[in-house]
Design goal:
Layout: H1 2-32, H2 36-54, H3 57-79, H4 86-96, H5 103-137, E1 164-170, E2 180-194, E3 202-213, E4 222-237, E5 240-251, E6 261-273, E7 276-286, H6 296-299, E8 302-310, E9 313-321, E10 331-340, E11 347-355, E12 367-375
Antiparallel strand pairs: 1-2, 1-12, 2-3, 3-4, 4-5, 5-6, 6-7, 7-8, 8-9, 9-10, 10-11, 11-12
Length: 379
């Protein structure tokens, strides 16, 4: 009889240990998934079972109160969608090696679990706040919408105007050059500050360079290069998508009678809807080179740009005029079309230009030119 009673006792203890092990495993699964509410329910069952074995009702009351408090704290942590790391290891160790549980240690573990989760939440929130503060303090921390797809990827540089290379033909023959040449433009901008004045504005430095290369002539000289640095501030306004005010210098880098340069203060605004965009710009010219003091008679006092984008294709136009409604009327028109070349990342580029001021060297000579080539940036 003694042997039978001992065997029954051992079986009961084995079943109890097995039940506790299963409860631990189930609780560990829920905890690993971040479902702290159900995990705490199973831990509560483990604590209740241990207390029942002890037959200690006062301690059971304390354990239940502690468990309920930890469960509430876990429920709060669950709404924050946080997953503590240290408690996972602790629970995993417990489920791997089940052992009798003391009531006080069980409730203490639950409280520690809630504290660890709260600590993890606090640390994560502090880390995120520090990261956000650091980003907002950085001059490169543009609003996300303003950074998409226009970064060079180094030094905070961004694309500014189309970067392209065109093979062109001028139908208006000129004795000092070949009709066929290569024309390319390169540009970038470097934002200096965002929202420094509290208007959501961007202050930026920009640079653009156009060059005309006589590749069909002997020794293939560069006929002309124009360099255009500028500083501007742009900001959203109620009456348009953007208002942009800036100052720019443009010159050809030559001296003597071939020197050309002028400076401009300008203001422009942009309106866009359903793929259409229109940008009028007006400028005031000052500090003109003595060789081009009459440049405003050919370049006018502003220009108008319009575009229509459909898919990844784009049609655009530029119109410029001196608004002299007599025999001295001068101006220019430019038409552009860009389209993707399969999935190469390059864009086909077609251009037609007719009028004055394609380059500073030709500010007072009419050009009638067509070009075909590649654009390296989608605009």
């Amino acid at each position: 009889m003694k042997f039978k009673a001992l065997a029954l006792a051992l079986c009961a203890m084995s079943l109890a240990a097995q039940d506790l092990s299963e409860l631990y495993a189930k609780a560990g699964e829920y905890e690993a998934k971040g479902d702290y509410k159900n995990a705490m329910i199973y831990y509560k069952k483990i604590a209740a079972a241990s207390l029942a074995d002890k037959g200690d009702k006062p301690r059971r009351k304390v354990a239940e109160n502690s468990t309920s408090s930890a469960e509430n704290r876990a429920s709060h942590d669950d709404t924050a969608v946080l997953r503590p790391t240290e408690p996972q290891n602790s629970f995993a160790q417990n489920s791997a090696a089940p052992k009798p549980v003391e009531p006080n240690s069980t409730s203490s573990n639950f409280a520690d679990t809630g504290s660890a989760a709260s600590g993890s939440a606090s640390n994560l929130a502090s880390s995120n706040s520090a990261s956000l503060s650091q980003n907002s303090a950085s001059p490169d921390s543009a609003p996300q919408g303003k950074q998409n797809g226009r970064n060079f990827g180094f030094l905070g540089l961004k694309y500014y105007e189309p970067i392209y290379m065109l093979f062109t033909h001028d139908f208006s023959k000129k004795p000092d050059r070949k009709a066929d040449e290569l024309h390319f433009e390169f540009s970038f901008e470097r934002p200096i500050a965002y929202d420094a004045l509290g208007f959501g504005e961007k202050i930026s430095f920009a640079y653009a360079q156009n060059s005309w290369w006589q590749i069909t002539q002997d020794s293939a000289p560069f006929r002309e290069s124009n360099y255009r640095p500028e500083l501007y501030v742009s900001a959203p306004v109620p009456f348009a998508d953007e208002l942009k005010i800036g100052a720019m210098h443009e010159s050809n880098g030559k001296g003597g009678e071939e020197s050309r340069s002028w400076n401009r203060l300008y203001a422009q605004s942009t309106w866009s809807a359903d793929g259409f965009s229109i940008t009028p710009r007006a400028w005031y010219a000052f500090w003109l080179d003595r060789t081009n003091e009459d440049i405003a008679d050919y370049m006018g006092y502003g220009d108008l740009r319009a575009s229509y984008t459909f898919g990844k294709q784009r049609l655009s136009a530029l119109w410029r005029n001196n608004l002299h409604f007599d025999g001295s009327n001068r101006g220019a028109i430019e038409l552009n079309y860009s389209f993707p070349i399969f999935n190469s990342g390059f864009y086909g580029y077609l251009r037609y230009f007719n009028g004055y001021g394609e380059s500073l060297a030709d500010y007072k000579r009419s050009v009638n030119k067509i070009g075909i080539g590649l654009s390296f940036v989608e605009f």
